[in-house]
Amino acid sequence: MNEASTAAAQGARPNQRPELAALDDATLRGALTRMHLIRKFEEAAEASYMRGLIHGTMHLSIGQEASAVGTTLPLQPHDYILSTHRGHGHCIARGAEPKLMFAEFFGKETGYCKGRGGSMHIADVEGGNLGANGIVGGGLPIAVGVGMSIKAQKNGRVCMVFFGDGASNEGAFHEALNMASIWKLPVVFVCENNKYGMSMDISRAMAVANVADRASAYAMPGHCLDGNDLAGVAATARVAVERARSGGGPSLIECKTYRLRGHSKSDRNLYRSKEEIEDWRAQDPIRRLEAELQAHDRFGAAELMALEEDAQREIDAAVEFARACPDPDPKDLTRDVYAL
């Protein structure tokens, strides 16, 4: 079916761009719901932290929702992801339950990692999420190992690994891309370029203009795109995932996006201007998608509001669930701790 036929079949206006026309209403409804869940999860996590309900620190991805949801849309249930210290969005985009994530945040026994992992180490192996990593670029070599396993087992799966712009200057980045390309591994490398590695502007830390420019050194496609455009991200990810699954090898996707909060909760945000933050706030991926959907009569304002309200109710219920969950028993302190 060509693009015009797809648009007509969906009852949408024919002048919508191909990337949007390729997504049916059910897919868009699910994608927008997950974007709302990510945003509201992190807002609730931030509020819980301020109230002293969560200890330690956390790294919020508010403003990056289209990147997490768009890249994972083409993945199948049996595929894998590897996440980062800024990984709440990846977890929810992959289908994690917010209530179990909050239980993990609150250090509860019912959390995904029984309260031992916290914000930076949530994993849901059964759901295809092989875990987050607090080491910058730490997931990249793991993805190569997963890709080798997939290829050896010939099971047709794909591994998608997320990392930030700062990680692209780590040796692990170059080693991972080189090995994945040599062996044509089914790995999709996704760089969420939010402009800053902690407080360092990427323009001061990298000799080339785009992280994706480095793909040519490893004989793989490099895609540089607007990371706040859900439909565009999904279209590019679909090409990369299909290439990986068909045996064509890895791809590098660079989603240019922005974190509206600081690097972590201890970040005083003194290295960027309020004007810069407000400029990016005007490019909010959720509101952009809603505006485009309404412009093409795909969804009405009432339905869009209902989706957001439903997400808020789910997050509110998730927080209450987590607060009521039992704490771990101290006698189980060494459970799941192994030594060689």
Radius of gyration: 20 Å
Weakly predicted, low-confidence segments: 1-12
Distance between the termini: 56 Å
- DSSP E strands, number: 7
Major beta sheet, specifics?
5 strands, parallel
Classify the helix fraction into a percent range.
40-55%
Counting H and I runs of at least 4 residues, what is the number of helices?
12
Protein structure class: alpha/beta
Shape designation: globular
| Average pLDDT | 93
- SSE string, helix = H, strand = E? HHHHEHHHEHEEEEHEHHH
Percent of sequence in beta strands: 5-15%
Strand order of the largest sheet: 1-2-3-7-6
Structure report:
The protein is an alpha/beta fold and 340 residues long. The protein contains twelve helices and seven strands. It has helices at residues 3-9, 18-21, 25-50, 65-72, 88-93, 98-105, 139-153, 171-182, 230-245, 274-281, 285-295, 301-324; strands at residues 80-82, 159-164, 187-193, 196-197, 200-201, 222-226, 251-256. A five-stranded parallel sheet has the order 1-2-3-7-6, sandwiched between helices. β4 and β5 form a beta hairpin. α4 runs parallel beside α9 (230-245) and α6 crosses α12 (301-324). The longest helix has 26 residues, at 25-50. The N and C termini lie far apart (56 Å). 47% of the residues are buried.
